[in-house]
UniProtKB/TrEMBL annotation:
InterPro entries membership: Isoprenoid_synthase_dom_sf (IPR008949), Polyprenyl_synt (IPR000092), Polyprenyl_synt_CS (IPR033749), Prenyl_diphosphate_synthase (IPR053378)
Keyword field: Isoprene biosynthesis, Magnesium, Metal-binding, Transferase
One Pfam family from the record: polyprenyl_synt
Family listed: Belongs to the FPP/GGPP synthase family.
Name used for this protein in its record: Polyprenyl synthetase family protein
Signal peptide coordinates: none
Species of the source: Faecalicoccus acidiformans
Amino acid sequence: MKTLKNEFEEYLQSTLQKDIPSKTREAMNYSLMNGGKRVRPMILFALLQDAGVDPHSGFSCAGAIEMIHTYSLIHDDLPCMDDDDLRRGHPTCHKAFSEAIAVLAGDALLTKAFEIVLESDASDLQKVKLVKSLSECAGINGMILGQDLDMQTENHPLTSFDELKRIEIYKTGMLLSLPMRCACVLSQQEEHIEAWSQIGILLGIQFQIQDDILDKTQTSEVLGKSTSDEKNDKATAISLLGLQKASKIVLDLEQKIKDQLNQIPGDHDCFQQILNYLIQRKY
């Protein structure tokens, strides 16, 4: 996986090189290549390997997913949203460039995502299905809805964990489901899309609660990002449940993910490695 990740980094770097040089392209490259964990691409590659498909065939799709994820982070960090100064150990895009350039960089990454999928070697039918998944998971009924619900909490603070969970289903879960859906399309195993989507949703909730725990127990320097929720007085799993109960829910979700995984036929060794890494992560 390490070799594959290095190859993917080279591919990702190359995707912006043919575009006309501009300040926006510079900001896109700055945010896209500044040391992300590449969780979603690694999930896609692991599922392809488990299905006996060359993971390199998923590079275009993984690049698109990473561009969408990066655009969402650029916009999430803006002063009009979470107003963060640090992302992946570096100044956020609007701090390194300007607010206007950051908005354009996010917009450009989103549109670039669809371009590289349509230029891929996938069949025409697969491209249609991939674009549909990208649109659904990133759009108004996906990640954008999660952001919308999150922003509404500024005027209507959350009072229950169920409300927070609904936000994370869309804000985090949909983009973690996306590489799973795309892997099903590329490996011609679309009968399992719903089952994998449910794993993605559960993993999204678990991932975000774990983030809340890390924000409380680790420093900004270790995490490589601002821990702005407490500063912004935003409700988190910790503020709503306490550290002990939140930690227990993480373990409960881990078991639910494993139970769901056991219901899907086939070998899941590569995905299990990624899952173990995500569950055990400390930053």
